[in-house]
Write a structure and sequence with these properties.
The complex is a heterotetramer, with two copies of chain A (79 residues) and two copies of chain B (150 residues). Chain A is α+β, with helices and mostly antiparallel strands. Helices cover 23% and strands 28% of the residues of chain A. Chain A contains two helices and five strands. In chain A, strands 2-1-5-3-4 form a five-stranded mixed β-sheet. In chain A, strand 3 and strand 4 form a beta hairpin. Chain A is globular. Chain A starts with a strand and ends in a 6-residue tail after the last strand. Chain B is α+β, with helices and mostly antiparallel strands and 150 residues long. Helix content of chain B is 30%, strand content 39%. In chain B, strands 3, 4, 6, 8 and 9 form a five-stranded antiparallel β-sheet that branches. Chain B is elongated and about 50 Å long. The two termini of chain B are 25 Å apart. The chains are: A alpha+beta (79), B alpha+beta (150). Chains A and B meet through helix 1 and strand 4 of A and strand 4, helix 2, helix 3 and strand 8 of B.
Chain lengths: 79, 150, 150, 79
């Protein structure tokens, strides 16, 4: 299945990418996707990453579906 | 009557504070958060000088989260109108980065809701701040929020 | 840097809120208090309609009391600049009757000081409010402050 | 001795005066002055009156001096 991955802030700088398209097997969780990305983009390894699926916060156990928009980012710091 | 907005342009605090003056209200409390030039490190007393800030957002999600927290505030507090506007992009020292404005029949609820909303915004809304110094730059650490909050 | 002022002219909340943006500050909290048209009597649920307000002050003493409370706030809270401006004379519905604006390095102290200052102003500063209704008028009772406070 | 008396708000309306000049004997207190004024201006009787001497809040026991500016007013209601 295909996933659209968005990176922001320090995560985007670390991966030198803001948008990625990934094709992965079925039954992958957010946590597993993060592990794949940390492997493909080692500078992500030092960052604490939060995630959102389809613009809602999601836990690591959350199972992904084809076409999901997955955002990964460091803890927010607006204000 | 409520506003949740992201903008790349300067924010006029007065315009936001006075955008709604409901006839059942008597008080509007407005938080104006802006870039501080001098920040004292509470641990070692050193003063760090910021040149400017750069804000980035996951815009669609940020707007959703802003609307959610406004809806929660209107349930939890006796308030009539809320405006939350956050600046994106480069923000100079002293320029407003965020405004939270709450109109209420009575001031105590306006203070409480405004204070709660800015805390929620900093906790939940996907916006990131980069601080640019004379000798480098860094994404703000929310864990050091006592030093970087507006 | 601090302001204590009485004025017969309309007050611009935005101008007051942005009058001082100290370089060691990151937040300004501003209370805008204004005349409410509709006030619910909390005891019986009836809604009273105000036409306009008239404020009167013992001006020299009011300014002294405003300066005293600002000095106390600057001792009690970690804040950098305070502005307190009260309107006198006839004030129309929705027009600002009082502004209290506090700039601080961090927002929590700005909220706390702003809230304390408006409470002190209502408790100590010799200003009196007359409420004019369609069918009469009355000097506001501070004991019913929950119904008449901004 | 001579006193300058200022009335505000409901007190001024009740007494139909904002400024009064009173000549009184020595050793008068604020409380005694208020009693004199309530007698001379009976509508003041229904009002709770606070006082200030020379622009500082003063208690009823406060002794007055020649030339003092005494303000009388109902509890404040600004804001």
């Amino acid at each position: 299945m295909n996933l659209k991955i968005l990176l922001f802030g320090a995560a985007a700088e670390a991966a030198k990418n803001r948008d990625l398209s990934y094709s992965v097997g079925q039954d992958i969780t957010v946590g597993e996707l993060i592990e794949i990305l940390r492997r493909d983009y080692p500078p992500l390894d030092s960052l604490q990453l939060l995630s959102a699926v389809n613009q809602e916060y999601a836990e690591a156990e959350r199972r992904l579906n084809d076409g999901d928009e997955v955002a990964l980012f460091t803890p927010v710091s607006g204000g | 009557m409520d506003i949740a907005e992201l903008t790349n342009r300067p924010i006029s605090v007065g315009d936001v504070a006075r955008r709604f003056v409901p006839e059942d209200c008597g008080a509007t409390v407005t938080l104006d958060g802006y870039a501080r030039r001098f920040t004292r490190n509470l641990a070692n007393g050193e003063i760090r000088q910021t040149q400017y800030l750069v804000y980035e957002a996951y815009e669609q999600m940020a707007l959703k989260e802003m609307k959610k927290m406004i809806a929660r505030a209107k349930t939890a507090f006796r308030i009539s109108a809320v405006a939350v506007i956050h600046r994106l992009g480069r923000v100079e020292i002293g320029e407003t980065s965020v405004v939270v404005s709450v109109a209420a029949p009575h001031r105590h609820e306006a203070f409480a809701a405004c204070s709660w909303l800015i805390g929620e915004l900093k906790r939940t809304v996907p916006i990131w701040k980069k601080e640019v110094y004379s000798d480098g730059e860094a994404w703000a650490e929310p864990s050091s929020s006592l030093g970087t909050q507006p």
